[in-house]
Amino acid sequence: MIRILANDGLEEGALFSLQEHGFDVIIEKVPQENLIDFINSSQVRGLLVRSATKVRKEIFDACPNLSFVGRGGVGMDNIDVAYGRSLGRTVTNTPASSTRSVAELVFAHLFSVARFLHHSNRVMPVEGQGKFEALKKSYAQAFELKGKTLGIIGFGRIGQEVAQMAMGLGMKVLPYDPWVKTAEIEVDFLQTGDTFTLEFETVSLDELLQASDAITLHVPMPANGNPLLSAAEFSHMKPGAILINTARGGIVNEKDLLVALDSGRLAFACLDVFENEPSPLPELLNHTKISVSPHVGGSTAEAQTRIGQELVDLVIDHFRA
Ligand code: NAD
Questions:
Q1: Domain spanning 3-97+301-319 has what CATH number?
Q2: 318 catalytically annotated
Q3: The dihedral of CA 171, 177, 183, 186: what is its sign?
Q4: Ligand 1 — pocket residues by CB below 6 A?
């Protein structure tokens, strides 16, 4: 029986499905320092991880029978992918599984700041009784998303899903992606199976910065490790614009962001990802103009189910091929 170690947990349906297909699945968490010994002594041939377990060169070198490594989710920063593949091992992930969940989180944040929910949920439990009328008055500057322009930096899977949702809300979409000039997206707004095509042309980064009421990032971390948006880019943005980062911490210069918020250049920021995870800067967490979440873009029941199912299919394809 082929033995699979799911070291960062596995969705229940996926576990049953692998067992039904005759795999012996271990879901106990093996500490990182014991992994090599465990894999070899237990004859593990497939390793499933999320982001916690690191699969570095040493594991590939020391475990010659480990032929499959699957990462549930998008990034593979925790795995030496190229090295594993150079040894002929299958190293793979489930990049599309969380697309919809991340796109929905973008709008959860955007609606939240547009109606001051990020603020009222912090303040009302503490001061709501005495300041009800004052808070009500200050939140009257809220705004609708309809008619606003959403700049989308990175027009891949998530960027395009965000674009569809924005169109559904009556927003104008301005995408920027140096590697995508045009995109045609099939949508089924009425859920009848009758699709129609939305066509998008990307614009320059500067055009996007200058014209967008809100800007959302959906790019990988640049290879040079430098932020994509810093003071220079903020100074080109519309005064009072909103910035949303659900991509990766470090893509936005956090210190410059705080300056832009404090000066009023930007009205709000929405952050799901941070440079110093899991201990983001307190100035970001406490800022009244920032809506925060703890890197939960892909953390929905539906995404977990899709991740599990995709992993099952990948394991079966690999070992049954
Ligand atoms: P994708 O590969 O489908 O799309 C990324 C797009 O970014 C590509 O079209 C690429 O051409 C473009 N791009 C790359 N560098 C760029 C740049 N400098 N400027 C503009 N565009 C650029 O990826 P995706 O599935 O859409 O994921 C996007 C990001 O979302 C990834 O960084 C991923 O790490 C992140 N993500 C976050 C969460 C979360 O929990 N918050 C979950 C899933 C994915």
A1: 3.40.50.720
A2: no
A3: negative
A4: 74-75, 95, 98-99, 102, 153-159, 176-180, 218-220, 222, 228, 246-248, 272-273, 295, 297-298
